[in-house]
Design a protein that fits this description.
Elements lengths: L2 H12 L13 H10 L5 E5 L3 H12 L4 H13 L21 E7 L4 E8 L5 H11 L4 E3 H10 L10 H13 L15 H10 L9 E6 L5 E7 L20 E4 L3 E7 L1 H5 L3 H10 L4 H14 L17 E7 L4 E5 L5 E5 L4 E5 L1 E2 L3
Parallel strand pairs: 3-4, 10-13
Antiparallel strand pairs: 1-5, 1-11, 2-3, 2-6, 5-6, 7-8, 8-9, 9-10, 11-12
């Protein structure tokens, strides 16, 4: 979408109320006909930190793997990387210095999902979520129950707090603990100011997360989202990543969507579900992402989350992969990015910002 079209889109959006749930096509047949007009799969799409993930997932798909196995194998590269402080091993801890992971996985053909929240001591949260999907009649396991389930299925416990993450946490404790997530009537968390102070003091601070979705040549789609969550969060806080329909959603007749950024904003908008529904209603993937982001902006009411000009002081990036092989990504503010593999090459590209 070029700048002129995006401005027209935003102007039209300002004049109309964007519904949370839009009607699906009368049947999957019409969408399937549209899908056949596109190039189709294989396609793998991920958040900007997933360039290695899309390469791995594509290799898995070309070797015949189910897309759900492919995306979990792809994100595992990032989950296992101690140098990536947003996901898995080496992720930044909560305010007590404990790394708690969230993840969700969804399999398009069976429309089955699995997720884990506040999982400790296991680096590959997405793989545990996949076990929940395959081995239980549940969707979500959390905390001690999620850990016990993982151990029962052979996952080995390990210390998740690397020296680098521990050093960051201790520096945060020394300098920024007055800017924690606790609120009273007079106090509000200003994410933008908090991130700026953290950067000025050299303290890593982020929302964390990797999203990955894959479409194979048969037109089947799966996706996952995995994260260590908001840096220095209140213990037990769960973001959008393990919430089906918020941080990730798949409809095998339509496509997949996911999100990174401020999880609370995505949860309160059913962001991934809304984006897939917009594609089902005929929008291109990028347009669907932008429409969801516009809804998020329109429903951000707290002054502490807005700049003086009325724009959000936090970022959210949405990612969308449609059944016909088309893909797109958009973010609230400049800086979002994504990775995509079209079966020939992997690329790292900027997401389209809602606000310049």
């Amino acid at each position: 979408m070029n700048d002129l079209n995006r401005r027209a889109f935003l102007a039209a959006g300002a004049a109309a109320t964007v519904p949370l749930i839009v009607p699906l096509p009368a049947s999957g047949a019409s969408l399937a006909r549209r899908a056949r007009q596109g190039r189709g799969g294989p396609i793998v799409l991920s958040s900007g930190n997933g360039l290695r993930a899309v390469v791995k997932a594509m290799d898995e798909i070309k070797a015949g793997a189910d897309p759900v196995d492919a995306v979990v194998a792809g994100v595992a590269i990032v989950e296992n990387d101690p140098g990536d402080m947003s996901v898995g091993y080496g992720g930044l801890p909560n305010e007590d210095g404990v790394v708690q992971l969230d993840a969700s996985v969804m399999h398009g053909p069976s429309h089955k999902a699995g997720s884990v929240g506040a999982l400790e001591n296991i680096p590959n949260a997405a793989a545990v979520a996949l076990k929940v999907l395959r081995r239980t009649d549940h969707v979500m396991l959390v905390g001690a129950g999620a850990l016990a389930f993982a151990k029962a299925h052979g996952f080995k416990e390990q210390d998740m707090l690397t020296d680098q993450a521990r050093e960051a946490w201790l520096k945060w404790k020394e300098n920024l603990n007055q800017d924690d997530d606790w609120l009273n009537e007079e106090q509000h968390v200003d994410r933008d100011a908090r991130a700026e102070r953290a950067e000025r003091l050299g303290i890593p601070y982020h929302y964390g997360t990797i999203h990955c979705a894959a479409l194979n040549e048969s037109g089947d789609i799966s996706a996952c989202t995995t994260t260590s969550g908001l840096s220095y969060k209140i213990p037990g806080r769960v973001g959008d990543s393990p919430i089906i329909g918020a941080g990730m959603f798949v409809d095998n007749e339509v496509g997949a969507a996911g999100a990174t950024g401020r999880g609370e904003a995505v949860m309160q908008s059913c962001g991934a579900f809304q984006t897939v529904q917009h594609m089902a209603n005929g929008l291109e993937p990028e347009e669907a992402c932008l429409k969801t982001l516009k809804w998020i902006v329109d429903h951000t009411k707290r002054r502490s989350l807005l700049t003086a000009g009325g724009r959000p002081n936090y970022n959210v990036t949405m990612y969308a992969l449609r059944k016909d092989g088309k893909w797109g990504s958009a973010c609230l503010l400049k800086g979002g990015s994504f990775a995509v593999h079209d079966g020939t090459q992997a690329q790292h590209l900027p997401s389209t910002p809602l606000f310049e």
